[in-house]
């Protein structure tokens, strides 16, 4: 059996005849030049062409391009749409049409202390991450555990945080984290069922979303955003209720959190000593 084009070339869906038709892409054909450059420079594995690792990696990369940028699931070439389901960490199973409406980031992240998919639209989620990862957010398959029809593998997502990240947290507050200029790395596992044409029928993703946000915010992973309070007067007050601070992680860098006043946000400590800040807007 000959391999489908999306299994041979990681950019196949950007090159085929359908890719140039009007209305195929959400906001025009996406440009993956930066992400590809980042991938080539910082990938941890170099899979041999035509190896199963290489083939599965290509399929997933093309799948990501389609589900993120093609609004009409009937035009997704990498999935068996009638049988397609997507889930994360054993949660809700989404159809292709539900993912196209909600967005890949929202379906992958859901509700956490750092992020609320209920309050963030498809477009807002992509803007937030595209802005933070100005050099791209690359993906690679790092280890393959089993082959078709049930494919299981470990993966790595990575990119340098070049600009601020801002979104709603689960408490309904908007926060803004300044750029760290550091490489952000995220690891997880996937289990995918494919048909005889290597089209994805079921895709299960397993990972800890907090891996991402603790690096973006450089806060302690045990910080509870629910304990962040807003100032009730014009005088700046701590974002954290200091009476409950001892219940939070002792490693929380309080000197890196700034406090909004009624006029403008001012740091708790001297700005000159603050290398990174996280602000509640």
UniProtKB/TrEMBL annotation:
InterPro entries: NTF2-like_dom_sf, Pathogen-related_defense. This is Pathogen-related protein. The lineage of its organism: Eukaryota, Metazoa, Spiralia, Gnathifera, Rotifera.
């Amino acid at each position: 059996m000959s391999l489908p084009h999306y299994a041979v070339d990681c950019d196949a869906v950007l090159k085929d005849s359908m890719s140039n038709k009007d209305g195929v892409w959400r906001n025009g054909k996406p440009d993956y030049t930066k992400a590809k450059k980042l991938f080539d420079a910082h990938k941890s594995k170099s899979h041999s062409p035509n190896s199963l690792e290489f083939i599965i990696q290509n399929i997933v990369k093309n799948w990501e391009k389609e589900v993120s940028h093609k609004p009409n699931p009937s035009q997704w070439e990498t999935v068996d749409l009638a049988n397609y389901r997507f889930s994360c960490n054993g949660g809700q199973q989404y159809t292709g049409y539900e993912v196209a409406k909600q967005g890949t980031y929202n379906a992958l992240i859901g509700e956490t202390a750092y992020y609320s998919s209920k309050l963030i639209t498809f477009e807002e989620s992509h803007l937030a991450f595209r802005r933070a990862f100005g050099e791209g957010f690359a993906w690679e398959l790092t280890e393959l555990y089993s082959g078709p029809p049930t494919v299981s593998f470990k993966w790595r997502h990575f990119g340098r945080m070049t600009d601020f990240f801002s979104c709603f947290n689960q408490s309904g507050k908007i926060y803004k984290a300044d750029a760290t200029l550091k490489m952000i790395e995220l690891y997880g596992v996937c289990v995918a069922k494919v048909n005889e044409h290597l089209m994805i029928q079921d895709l299960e993703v397993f990972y800890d979303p907090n891996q991402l946000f603790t690096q973006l915010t450089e806060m302690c992973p045990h910080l509870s955003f629910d304990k962040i309070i807003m100032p009730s007067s014009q005088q700046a007050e701590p974002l954290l209720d200091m009476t409950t601070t001892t219940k939070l992680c002792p490693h929380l860098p309080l000197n890196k959190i700034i406090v909004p006043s009624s006029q403008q946000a001012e740091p708790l400590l001297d700005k000159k000593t603050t290398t990174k800040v996280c602000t509640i807007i």
